[in-house]
Amino acid sequence: MPTTIPTTTSSTRPGSPSAGDAYFETDTKDYIIYDGTAWRSWENDGSFASGSFPSNSYSAYFDGSNDYIDTNNKFDFIQQTCEFSVTCWAKWTNYNASTTENQSIIATTSTGSQKGLYFYYDSRGGSRNLKVMLSANTIVTLSASGGVGDNVWHHYAVTCSGSGGSLKLYKDGSVIASGTAPTTTTSTANHTMNLGLGSGGYGYLTDAYLDEAAVFNYELTSSEIDDIRATPYSYIKYTSLYRLENNANDESGANNGTNFNATFVTSTKPY
After folding, report:
1. What is the pLDDT of residues 233-267, one digit of tens each?
2. Predicted TM-score of the model (pTM)
3. Is 213 part of a structural domain of the chain?
4. What CA dihedral angle connects 42, 43, 47 and 53, to 10 degrees?
5. Residues 28, 115: one domain?
6. Same domain for 244 and 132?
7. Distance (Å, rounded) from C-alpha 105 to C-alpha 68?
8. What whole-number distance in Å separates Cα of residue 81 and Cα of residue 134?
9. Burial 38-57 (b: 16+ CB within 10 A, else e)
10. Partner of 270 at 20 to 30 A CA spacing, among 53, 85, 225, 229?
């Protein structure tokens, strides 16, 4: 006899599930399975949908000297569609540093071709400007004065709605800079996405803590960003998610990173 998968919703998932429990969520249209420690979700077309995680014990610390994580994937859709989102938690150990270079947070750009995303903290001369450079057919730069102002955890997001659409920079759920996105390019000539290292692997190292860096192949709404920021361990339909739980693994299993000297510590985002 055919069997029917029991139904639930994203807000009424069982509170004490057992490993192997499976449901169909009627609101998200996703299949969810409890693996013994967390719910895992798949869209009904078979693609990975979301994850809900039970704990957050570690973050990655980059000392500004030779630490970074290479995610081993180009994420070419960033410049080919200009429709994406990147989110993370970050805390700078010396936020008012006067340095000779920018401090990169997340970057896919490459020397010469400059095709992709460069999200960085310009601390030169104590300026404390948070900046986004998106390079596709042309280059667009956003700058938020005072985007980094203290030595505490903040949630950051960069979103883009597509070719010629809206490019936005968020801090703690609020837009702090916005502009018009460039038009797309078919170029794939960018280096792999790095955490804590800038364009092409040449310098631009950061002195900061980083946690839960996520990449999405669509524009997150402000309410979705608020959900990620305020709801512990809840991410919906991401492409890759680096929780940095004592490793550089991608929660989707597709793009595990390689750690170059970053240390994993118990200073984590505020929840």
Report:
1. 667 788 899 999 999 999 887 889 999 999 999 98
2. 0.81
3. yes
4. -30
5. no
6. yes
7. 10
8. 12
9. ebbbeeeeeebbbbbbeebe
10. 85
